[in-house]
Please model this.
Amino acid sequence: LDQKNEWKRRPQIDVCLKSLDNSKDIKQEFLEEVKNQHEHGGNSAIAIYGITKNPKDGNYMMVMD
Model:
């Protein structure tokens, strides 16, 4: 989303999903850390695009480069 809360389409890219075992009851501080890495990670960090939830087991997964 941009500053106007409008979706932007990007070219299709390959991503890595890292499953976080036993993360059904994830803590807010972890979500804030993922958000911080996403917004301020810089070029030297692995790009974190966000998180998603596995509908089969309820665990969270990080969407990464």
User: Anything to note?
Assistant: The beta strands are 16-20, 48-53, 60-64. The radius of gyration is 13 Å. The CA atoms of residues 15 and 65 lie 5 Å apart.
